[in-house]
Amino acid sequence: MVSTVGVGVAAGAGVGVVGPSFSPLYQQIKSLILRSLQSGEWRPGEAIPSEIELAARFKVSQGTVRKAVDELAAENLLMRRQGKGTFVATHAEEQVQYRFLRLASDRPDALPASERRELLDCRRLRAPVDVARALQIKAGEMVVEVRRVLHFSGQPVVLDDIWLPGHMFKGLTADRLSDYRGPMYGLFESEFGVRMIRAEEKLRAVLADEAVGALLQVDVGAPLLSVERLSFTYGDQPVELRRGLYRTDHHHYRNELS
Amino acid sequence: MVSTVGVGVAAGAGVGVVGPSFSPLYQQIKSLILRSLQSGEWRPGEAIPSEIELAARFKVSQGTVRKAVDELAAENLLMRRQGKGTFVATHAEEQVQYRFLRLASDRPDALPASERRELLDCRRLRAPVDVARALQIKAGEMVVEVRRVLHFSGQPVVLDDIWLPGHMFKGLTADRLSDYRGPMYGLFESEFGVRMIRAEEKLRAVLADEAVGALLQVDVGAPLLSVERLSFTYGDQPVELRRGLYRTDHHHYRNELS
DNA sequence: GAGTGGTCTAGACCACTCC
DNA sequence: GAGTGGTCTAGACCACTCA
């Protein structure tokens, strides 16, 4: 429940305190909804209670709930559908196959190119220091390492190396990965209860070496787009490190600025 | 003013019409504010009328104005400052020097690196076909072409080729460009009344050739990040095409996904 | 027709800024 | 203290979905 008296006055002592001395009600509601999402009270794809129900539960007005839900929807954690309800966002049933993949074909989208996923490797090993630091785990803890190639229209375009904390993805095997239809993040949600909500990417231009060139069918010294992605789940917890190499001779990485 | 009767019913005939048959009041208000921004009624950096004044002007409630302004602020067209007012966003007086430049140093921001702009060229010429198509002007119309290099910490990092519609940037000269302190988009606002509000970028990995290598001080065949940016002003009108080549040996292109 | 989210209003009060 | 944006409420009505 929410304190109605002294609304918005965060903990922390009275006068003289510098920090964020004020937290509006709707932010507190937002945190409570977030907590329910994190705890799995409502699962990805499911509807959450109606605004009226939430208002009753938290003892605030519908407008306050609305503002909280609005922000969560703006952050892509919830999806509103007029007349139906508000739903927990999911990677599984999304219109676009890969929500975080910003790669687009150079051809003004003729037909949606055929797509194939080739799993090269999936093993468990002790985390190298750089991977451990990114995932905020101890160096030497177990991680799952996945290597795969994405083909579009029969051409290899993306080579991904992926690292996941071992303790969060206990039953993840090569079979599990190759059997699953749909984006990997959908599998993570349904099988391991881990939902990616945000990611940071660092892009660079690099040159193909022998090994990479063979996998992506380009010459040694060919230019490739290097995309290092760190994905986060609830609470800004990093749960995936991904190093991708993209061929950009027939595709490009698309970005919108505002 | 806004039609209060028949609120939200867009033009277009009655039953049977498929298209967007409904436009909420706050969207109409948003369009009106947008029109005032576009017409220059309020200039970049200036305050727009208070919510109460706008509500009176448009004959709607303050809450409706608020929702319109909220959306414009979310799109970075307006800036709200509690206790002071709502201001027209500007590239000139922004905290970060370059709002659209996503380049970051690999070093966890030690000190803000020194920065130098080197203007190589600024001339008028007839638009090549690809430039004309991007800017939605006729091939052969006059454009301003600018070439420059950005140096960070004494090292050349960015080589930009820029094209602007000639008729919108009549007095733009090399002197004007090199004299101006601050980001180029600030100059465009104050001197030419053109405000960039949105941009689309396409990224690729490419190899340096002889000429580029000399300017960026890299070897022929070195990997470079190619960034093609198309910038838009009000009404989704394209007004700048920019082809950039970035060295990514000590910097990276940063992107956030959600 | 019942239930959902979406819009619009009016009014009270709060936090911040500046005089 | 006056003026600004920010929060919160309560209630009415609208648009959309589904049974």
Write up this protein:
The structure is a homodimer of 258-residue chains. The first copy, chain A, is α+β, with helices and mostly antiparallel strands and 258 residues long. Helices cover 25% and strands 32% of the residues of chain A. Chain A contains 7 helices and 10 strands. In chain A, α1 crosses α3 (62-74) and α2 crosses α3. Chain A starts with 24 loop residues before the first helix and ends with a strand. The interface between A and B is medium-sized, with 32 and 32 residues. Chain A binds a DNA duplex (19 and 19 nucleotides) through residues 7-8, 22, 24-26, 50-52, 60-64, 66-67, 69, 80-86.
The CATH homology group name of the largest domain in chain A: Chorismate lyase-like
Share of residues in strands of chain A: 25-35%
Q: Which CATH first-tier class of the largest domain in chain A would you pick?
A: Alpha Beta
Strand order of the largest sheet of chain A: 4-5-6-9-8-7
Largest interface: A-B, 32 and 32 residues
> What's the number of extended β-strand segments of chain A?
10
Distance between the ends of chain A: 38 Å
CATH architecture identity of the largest domain in chain A: 3-Layer(aba) Sandwich
- Specify the biggest β-sheet of chain A: 6 strands, antiparallel
Instruction: Supply the number of helical segments of chain A.
Output: 7
> Helical content of chain A, roughly?
25-40%
Poorly predicted regions of chain A are 1-18
Report the principal-axis shape of chain A.
Answer: globular
Q: What is the assembly state of the chains in this entry?
A: homodimer
